[in-house]
Structures are given as C-alpha cells and as structure tokens.
Amino acid sequence: MEDLLLNSENLLNRVSLTFRRYLYFQINWNNRLIGIKGSRGTGKTTMLLQWLKEVDIPTRQKAYFSLDDIFFAGNSLVETAKLFYQQGGKILVLDEVHKYPTWAQEIKNLYDRFHDLQVVFTGSSIIDISKQEGDLSRRALMYELKGLSYREFLDFQYGIKFPKLSLEEILTSEGIVRKKFPQEFKPLANFQEYLRFGYYPYQAEDRLGYFQRLRQQTRLIVEYDMAELKGFDIRHAKKMMQLLFVVAQQVPFKPNINSLAEKTGIHRNSINNYLYFLQEARLLTLLYPAGSSVAVLQKPEKIFLENTNLLFALSKETPSTGTVREIFFSNQVGSMHNTSYPKSGDFLVDGKFTFEIGGKNKDMSQLSNVENAWVVKDEIEYPVGKSLPLWLFGFLY
User: Fold this and answer.
1) Between the CA of residue 361 and those of 90, 371, 377, what are the distances in Å?
2) Domain coordinates of the chain in residue numbers?
3) What b/e readout covers 214-224, taking b as 16+ CB neighbours within 10 angstroms?
C-alpha cells in the first residue's frame, strides 16, 4: 500500500488549482459517500484530486487510489482500505471503480464498517448504482460530470471568466443578458473552435491528435466500458461501432429501423436496444416525442451524437451547419434540462418552452401559433426580441 500512498501524494502535488469544473461547486462534499460518474475524458480524476488537495488535513490521512491499478488485481479493496483507515486515514478517493468487479459490495462494506471514513468514488457514465448489489443507492449521493460547456471552455482555454446563466435569465430579458457581458466581449470569436475542439479538457494537451484520440476513446467505451451494461453482449461491440459511424454520417435524423439494420447487420428488433446502450454510454442522445414515456424499446424521434466534437471526429465529411447547431443545443441544454421533440419546432424544453434552431435569417413563421416559443440563431451576438443567440445556451453550466 505504500506505493499507492506515494503515488497519491505525487498526484496531489502536481494537480493544478487554476481551473475547476462547474460540478466542483455543486457537490455536497460533506456527505460520507459520494459517487461521480461521467464519460471518459471529462475530467473526473482532476476534479477529485483538486478537492482532495484542498482538504485541510495531513497528507497521510487522505488518499487517491485508482482501481484499475494492477495492485488491485491481487489485493482486496476492503482490506487495503481497512489498513489505510487503521493508519489514520480519513478520506479515500476511489477512481475507475467499474474496473473492479465487486466494487459496489465492497464500497458498501466500507460505508457500514468505518463510520468516520469518507469515501468518494468515480465510475463510467454507464454505471447504474440502483442496479448494483449492496444497495448503494440509499447510501451514496450521486452526481454526473458532463464535458466542458462553452462558458467553461472560455475559462479553461483563455482565462475568460463569466458566471453561468439560468434558462429563465436567457429567456426573460435581452437587456439582462447584455448586462452580464462587457462591451468588448466577442461571443462568436471562439465559438467555432469550441464546436470542434472544446468539449473534452484533454484537447489542450494535443490539438493535432485530438480527433484521433477521440475516436480511440469512443472505441474503448464501446469495447470495454459498455461490458458493464446489463443486457449488452460484448461480442456485439463491432456492430455497435458500425451503428455509431452510420449515425454519425446522418445525424440528426428520424431513424429508419430497417435501413439501420441493413447497414449495420443488426437485427431490426435489437436496434432500439443498441441505440439505448449508446445513449447510456454518452455517445448518442435520443430525442423522444413530447408527452411520451421513455422506454428502452421505444423508437426515438431523432438521434444526435452526444456532442459536436464527436460529430467532427466521426464524420467522413465536414458536418452540415444545421446538424452542428442542433447537436450543440441538444448537448448544452439537455445537460441541465429535459428535452423532447415537439409537434412544431425542433426542441421542447421542460415541457413548456419551444425552440426552433437555425441561421441568422431564420424567422418565427414556423412557431407563429406556439406559445412560449423562440428562434435560436447562429451567427448573432445577442438576443433581439424572440431571437436568441445559439452560443448563449453554452452558459447554462
């Protein structure tokens, strides 16, 4: 265990506190058992190391263990944590818990046995603790970390800091929105960069190899992480990749089940299940008709890639501007609010706000008889009446 503690100390010494994710300020860090899930590359590990570094207790009383470390291939998590606790440990951060087969039961055991040991764990976005053994759902306070918002990207990449905006603030008054930003701020100056490269924090490390790394990450999610999903047969991973790439060339679109089955070799009765699995892995977003119940076997009205960076990485050709706009809106708004497909317009948010997405010349003609409706336009800087700028929805978190 000494090597684990030494590695933990080294990581804490190296982690930067310059930029912190939105979720850092939303978590109730006083809870005794906290779980944070999220897709690969969104920054879960960095966020936890930052928090652990700032906790004002001696270094040997706090530790970070990654459960994909080879140490845990031959050593019990419970016994290792017990030894840490007996040596005065108070806070234990466990990363990549889904890589350890009996993680749920053993974390539950730690919670029940050591009442003054705080445990914080992270896992893939696909983990569902309500279906895990040990009934962690009653014990753990769960959160999910999304990729960078446009607001966070401006801070992370350029040090441009702004507070987040609520949906109500965006919709209420154009004057209120304008007052939130200095006159010299050019909101569109870095927007196209964000759409291509801004969602995952690791883009700062290697911009030239970003798309290749993103494709590799996608394959790892499908071939390894999704093995944790109940009902998913890992032997179908190749077909899942085929389905994902087929969708990437066409999104957003109304899915034709027979056509998807023919192009991927997946039986038509299994397509909706596969789409659902890809959504659980945060690779796709499925938009269902307004007023309908979301069920695994239900056909979605539209399919989107989860974020615009994935779209640029997986598309064979430059994606259409309209597709990019809709995916950005779906991703940023859907991270904080419920979205569905309305009878008129492109998105219904929280069951009461309707939005049509388009370019700067888009008008309200398609929404003329719809209450609480707005046109969201690309290439405009600030709200004008019922016209809202697309970039502004990147400030919701």
Assistant:
1) 59, 21, 8
2) 2-145, 151-395
3) beebbeebbee
The first and second tokens of residue 5, run together, are 């503690």
User: What CA–CA distance (Å, rounded) separates 290 from 338?
Assistant: 10
In angstroms, how far is CA 61 from the centroid of its own chain? 31
Residue 356 · residue 148 · CB < 8 Å:
no
What is the distance between the alpha carbons of residues 237 and 255, in angstroms, rounded to a whole number? Answer: 20
152: helix, strand or coil:
helix
User: What is the predicted pLDDT for the residue at 11?
Assistant: 98
- CA dist., res. 87 & res. 375, Å (int): 60
**In the block, which residue shows the tokens 């700067």?**
360
The b-or-e profile of 22-35 (16+ CB within 10 A means b, else e) is: bbbeebeeeeebbb
Which amino acid, one-letter code, is at 126?
I
Please state, rounded to an integer, the average pLDDT across all residues of the chain: 92
Predicted model pTM: 0.92
Strands of the 339-340 sheet, one edge to the other: 339-340, 347-349, 353-358, 373-377, 387-389
Residue indicated by tokens 């938009």: 287
CA-wise closest residue to 335 among 393, 252, 273, 277? 393
Gap between the Cα atoms of 197 and 310, Å rounded: 9
Could you tell me which CATH number the domain at 2-145 has? 3.40.50.300
- Separation of alpha carbons 276 and 301, rounded Å: 13
Kindly report each contact of residues 371-379 with a partner whose C-beta sits within 8 Å and lies 24 or more positions away, as own/partner: 373/344, 373/345, 374/171, 376/325, 376/329, 378/321, 378/325, 379/188
Residue spans of the chain under pLDDT 70: 129-134, 230, 251, 253, 293-297
Checking phi first, is residue 282 left (phi over 0); if not, alpha (psi -120 to 50) or beta?
A: left
User: DSSP secondary-structure letter at 318?
Assistant: P
pLDDT at residue number 129: 62
In the block, residue with structure tokens 């696909």 = 126
Sequence-separated (6 or more) residues with CB below 8 Å from residue 46: 15, 201
pLDDT of residue 297: 61
d(CA 50, CA 14): 10
